[in-house]
Structure prediction request, 264 residues.
Amino acid sequence: MSTVARLDLHSHTRHSGDCFVPLEQAVAIAGQRGLTHLAITDHDSCGCARQQAGKHWPIELIFGEEVTLADGTHLIALGIADEVKSKTLGEAMQEIRAAGGFVVVPHPFKKGSGVFACGEQVKALVSQFADAIEVCNSKLTDRENQQAFALARELGKPMTAGSDAHFGYDVGDAVLEIEAGNGSTTDWRELIRSSRGARVMVNRSARQKSFDEHLLDTRVNNLWPSVRRLVPKPVRTLMKRTLHRAVYQPRVRGRGFMLEELKF
Prediction:
């Protein structure tokens, strides 16, 4: 008899400045959607890991951090409890490994925050120090995810998938689904390392992307970075929180959840 592990390896809680969801809500939704593992990767913060130390949850939580590097690109560290201090790609990856963490390159071709968005000059560093490549991010297009998959295949790296959830209802929108024999390991590191035979599953509603507030906010930032700099971050966060509650959240109450395999 086989067992199925379902891992969402990129999500956020209120410890991220652009997310308003408590951990308890994210875990509850993950459980309802059949996840076995959920990675908490808040922006530049391991506060959630410290706050929840010693607590027990109905699914396995993997605490980490989505690190913002000096050039604005992102790197995910899984399995750490303290914030990464290094701000260059090579130094940050080496620091994560020295701390016993697991290095994931998220949304590598995403404009603005993907380490490959401006070219492939970082390929040697990623090849040497990255443990895995995020090949599916539910906030990105199929084309961007296809590019990430091709990169993982070229470098021979294990793959991850993640919802990049910021709003609760999007937890589980992209997952790795790994089928294993009865009694096989449930250790998340081993599951990721065996991910070459996994299925990448995406919520059909997420693929439609008719309106996604996090995606919209990212695109506005990329188009008009000067506007972003003019508006203080606390003001932007307040605006997003207000719009989220008053406009967007009511529109997604009927949003469906049906996973379908993303074939590359």
User: Anything to note?
Assistant: Residues 2-214+249-261 form a domain with the TIM Barrel fold (CATH 3.20.20.140). The mean pLDDT is 88. The longest strand covers residues 60-68. Residues 47 and 63 are 10 Å apart (CA to CA).
